[in-house]
User: Fold these one by one.
Assistant:
Number 1:
Amino acid sequence: MKLKKTFSLTVFSPFQTYYEGPATLLSGVNKSGPFDILADHANFLCLLTPCELKVETANGQQKFAVQRGIVEVTDTNTYVFVNI
């Protein structure tokens, strides 16, 4: 079985870190609609609308209810600042 490529992801709020580590997929919703982030994604910045943020890792899937937030994808990391 071929392993999926990962990227570095941090999902956090002002008072809590929800996830920090490698991920294979990040899914969310912005004003334009649903989107997915995979490894090697182009630099990206967006505002999240209320949604269920989905993070897939080698150990399974985690979901977080988000009222609003910011997603930033850079060459080396992906950050999601939630409920700010």
Note: The mean pLDDT is 94.
Number 2:
Amino acid sequence: MKTVPQLEPDAGVDEQRAAVLTGLSLVRLRELARQTRLGRRADDRAGGRLRFTYQELHLLCRLATGADPQR
């Protein structure tokens, strides 16, 4: 029987991948992130792009679709 690998709780993705995973445009993703204060600035050579945890992406998806983010 195959086991599904567990993700690290603090694992995350950059804003480009987050936009693809959520189906949001990069502009919309940044707008939602700013409004909700989700995501963290990555201090790397990528110009301070945002990074998101998978939990934050889940919340952003629910907010973008109008679903109750508490469920």
Note: The first strand starts at residue 12 and ends at 14.
Number 3:
Amino acid sequence: MRELSVREMRAGYGAIAEALATEGELILTHHGKPFAKVVPLTVGVDVPDAAAEQRERARAWAARQRRFLAGQPELPPFDWDEFRADR
């Protein structure tokens, strides 16, 4: 089992991928102290589609905004000349 420091991990994805391919497991360290164990996913593990989940959240948020804005009173048109006169 190989240890990989945070500095090495930040250097690039290649270090993590190479360590997982050769060792199978990997321990992440910070200031020499282990804090996480990384293992490769096994075949058949159901990984949620994060992009699809994010799109659904964005759609739901947009729908809530539309409902909120629909209930707001209509503002009168802005008159720049009146604004300048008040200055």
Note: The chain has a mean pLDDT of 86.
